[in-house]
Amino acid sequence: MTSGNRIIRLSPDHQRKINQLVEASPDRFRDADDFIFRAIDVFLSWEKNPVKVIDKLTDMEPTMLQFAFMQSMMEPDVLKQIYPGYPEKYGNEWKEFLNSIPDTGKTANEPEITQQTFESDNEFENIQNNLDSTRDFIKQINFNEISKEGYDDVKFDGWPLLFTHYSRLLPVKIAITLLGNMMREQKSPVINFNDFRARAYELAEEISKKLTVYEKENKKTREEKISTGLPRPTIINEVTAKQALAEQRYKDRYFGKLKRGQDTGETTFEGALMALGIIKIFSKKKDVLITLTDLGKKFYLLDNPIINGTNFPAFSNEEREFLVTKIIPNRPLETKLIKTATEIITYEDALSSDITDTLDMEFENTLKNFVKKSNDKKFTNKIQRDIIDKTIELKQNNEGKQTPVEACRIATMGRLTELGVVSWDINKEGKSEYEIADTELATAIKKL
Asked: Which of 90, 240, 280, 313 is the most exposed, fewest CB within 10 Å of its CB?
């Protein structure tokens, strides 16, 4: 669209979503321009005279989704003043709509309607329908040659561990699956990062809901669940500052964000995708672009049970081997920790009640040896201060709080369980028990 003599460009993602809405609702919007002009009109009212924004919003008949959302948020008398005659005007369609909502034990005007019930983009279905053509598109790209003139190539800072807050790797596969699909849609190997980040979260949430329902129906225990690392599907009445902050943290941790060093002023990029070496980032001020690395391409092209429509397991055998032998070794200290864990569970009595104590002790020794022997002192002071020393302090004070070493152990064992290297069980005393589940993969780890 244009503004005066200036052309305002919509992102491909915005264009796609607007076109979908216009095509799905020809009675509501004449065309994309009609939608855009109405959106601008509503936002101008919000900025200039917020009181009038309700009048703008009620110029059009609400969709049943919109009315259901407001019904979950407002007192019935107030809603009747804003929309007199609703929901009666919907007729029998309103009853059918309510019946389509999963039974939560609450009435329609109680705020327990999930956003996922009304997901209209069908991102997951779109990805599955186009999986073969997307793979063909990705196969043709040499990601080693991808660059962006005028943009800085932003690197990872080199932290040798995988952070404890991404204790599962399935979200990583989900994210790059979406990234590949967006490349095919836009016929470009380089994608706007903010568009990708927003859609990646929505997709992870959509898959989370599907897996959560499956796990509940099949009575999966805590240690069997593979939805653990995915975002909890959002409940409308929980869309609060707290929920928004949780979503922001999830996006930062898994999909990534730019980070400027306090001491050096150097701009780096953090997050699980970058830490694993499967994406590249280009930036120019606030404009951030994302693409795959050659390693990311290889991982993308491997079949995944979840993406292919099977609910279990989290990864195929080829993916598990690739993650263990090709991707995780990008983080050298993490590699040492998974070797430590695998060796202990192989040679110790893995079903003993003190296995976690043994793991914690050996993890601490592994961290200390890394600090002692490392020639690169860039992170050793932080590892010593924030993990080793803090753990010693908490144990001495006997505060009962989780120590940083325990957090490392929990995250590492979570990933090893997800990858099928070990099996995890919780005994009657509530303590974790581990056994080697895949001897070939465990042997491959010991050789790293």
From this structure: 240
